[in-house]
Write a structure and sequence with these properties.
With about 200 residues, the chain is α/β, with parallel strands linked by helices. It has eight helices and seven strands. It has one domain: Rossmann fold (3-Layer(aba) Sandwich). A seven-stranded parallel sheet has the order 4-3-2-1-5-6-7, with helices on both faces. Helix 1 (about 20-35) packs parallel to helix 2 (about 45-55).
């Protein structure tokens, strides 16, 4: 699978622990090393601004997608390769999916969770088949991954659906995993024998 552009969902805050800033910087550096472009939410604040600045400083391509309402609040990053201004959050996510070959969630809050879960839902429904993972820095996503495991054990999430989300604590490992990604056979999910 050829990966040229990676969509990154992440916090508009930097987080309390410096490891989160370091993770954004590390992922940005790894994208540069692999000559991959960054697609992200277009902000200049928090982890969003940090990863965009790293990729721009290294001469990489950064495409931001931001709703007009957020741009009006002066949180848009005007110093990136391309800033697309869209009507609303729904179009923002759809556009990010269209522009990217894979999706990664760094630590973040409700917006990041929502973007991650919508992406997983779209894979589950066969609307896209791009690799999707979380950069689990400092165990940030351990509770979420445990809840997905619990949902699987309790019969609310099929095993095949649980397996579409990958996790790694290192950007290199996560991107290496994406390189070996096999798109799920959604047709087999219609009447699966497993739970």
């Amino acid at each position: 699978m050829s990966l040229r552009r990676i969509a990154v969902f992440c916090g508009s805050n930097p987080g309390v622990d410096p490891i989160f800033r370091a993770a954004a910087e590390s992922l940005g550096a790894e994208l540069l090393a692999r000559q991959m472009s960054l697609v992200y939410g277009g902000g200049n604040v928090g982890l969003m601004g940090i990863i965009a600045d790293v990729v721009m400083a290294g001469g990489g391509e950064v495409i931001g997608v931001i709703p007009q309402a957020l741009r009006d609040r002066e949180v848009a990053h005007e110093g990136i390769t391309r800033l697309e201004v869209v009507a609303d959050m729904h179009i923002r996510k759809q556009r990010m999916y269209e522009l990217s070959d894979a999706l990664i969630a760094l630590p973040g809050g409700i917006g990041t969770f929502e973007e991650l879960f919508e992406s997983l839902t779209w894979i589950q429904l066969g609307l896209h088949a791009k690799p999707c993972g979380v950069l689990n820095i400092g165990g940030y996503y351990d509770p979420l991954l445990a809840q997905l495991d619990n949902a699987t054990q309790q019969g609310f999430l099929r095993t095949a659906h649980r397996q579409i989300l990958t996790s790694a604590a290192d950007p290199r490992q996560l991107l290496d995993g994406f390189a070996d990604y096999q798109a799920p056979d959604v047709e087999k999910w219609i009447h699966p024998s497993d739970t």
